[in-house]
Amino acid sequence: MSKIIVSASGWCEADPEEVRFQLITDMDDQAYITGVEWLELPESGDKNNVGRDDYILECVGKAFDTAIDGDYDHVEVEVEE
Predict the structure, then answer these.
(1) How many domains does the chain have?
(2) Which residue among 6, 11, 43, 78 has the highest number of C-beta atoms inside a 10 angstrom radius?
(3) Could you report how far apart the first and last alpha carbons of the chain are, in Å?
(4) Res. 8: pLDDT tops 80
(5) What residues contact 61, with CB distance under 8 A and at least 6 apart?
(6) Ramachandran sector of residue 4 (left: φ over 0; alpha: ψ -120 to 50; beta: rest)
(7) Strands (E), 18-59
(8) Is the pLDDT of residue 80 over 90?
(9) Can you tell me the distance from the alpha carbon of 38 to that of 44, in angstroms, rounded to the nearest whole number?
(10) Residue 66 pLDDT more than 90?
(11) Which domain holds residue 46?
(12) Alpha-carbon distances of 21 from 27, 40, 54, rounded to whole Å
């Protein structure tokens, strides 16, 4: 079966109330938080507290889908046999 490969580059202004972040460290904090909660964290955490750098964006697609503003610089669709 053929595969459809989509490559894209661009940016978006994500709505903090719509995006979520996932904890990537082994701290005992919430596994998922909203963008509003993420913005309230310090940029970096330490051994006792998490920071923004302890989380990753849960879903780039959701960020673009619910974006306040944005632009794609490049979108390419290819078929891979």
Answers:
(1) 1
(2) 11
(3) 7
(4) yes
(5) none
(6) beta
(7) 20-23, 32-34, 55-57
(8) yes
(9) 11
(10) yes
(11) 3-80
(12) 14, 13, 9
